[in-house]
Specification:
Layout: E1 2-3, E2 17-18, H1 20-33, H2 59-77, E3 81-91, E4 94-103, E5 109-117
Helix pairs in contact: 1-2
Length: about 120
């Protein structure tokens, strides 16, 4: 078992734990929504997706985001998952990313959807 992200206590008051599938999803979320430079000891960690919420919507932006997300996931989680597809939707101030991946440990195919809007 691994710690749940974001960190939180469980019903017993202990650190909440996550199963393998939930932990992988949590790690993907961390890569997607961490801005490079945000982590002190890993300044290149993340892909900076949140910085693009206010960027002009275009097919070029969506294609660039797909490549950025795919390469960041390969770089940081390539030992844990195989990224099969990344889909990016950008509508006004809403950004949604869908990641289809296979866990290297269990060979299970998963689809995870993440979205963030402007604050």
């Amino acid at each position: 078992m691994s710690l749940h992200f974001p960190f939180q206590p469980d019903h017993r008051g202990r650190s909440a734990e996550a199963d393998e599938d939930t932990h992988l999803r949590d790690m993907i979320e961390q890569v997607l929504f961490t801005i490079p430079g945000e982590r002190v000891n890993r300044p290149d960690f993340g892909c900076g997706l949140l910085q693009l919420v206010f960027a002009p919507n275009s097919d070029t932006l969506a294609a660039a985001l797909q490549m950025t997300v795919h390469s960041a996931l390969q770089q940081w989680l390539g030992e844990r998952i195989v990224v099969e597809a990344v889909t990016v939707e950008h509508d006004d101030a809403l950004l949604a990313v869908e990641v289809q991946y296979v866990s290297r440990s269990g060979q299970d195919r998963r689809l995870a959807r993440f979205s963030r809007g402007a604050p």
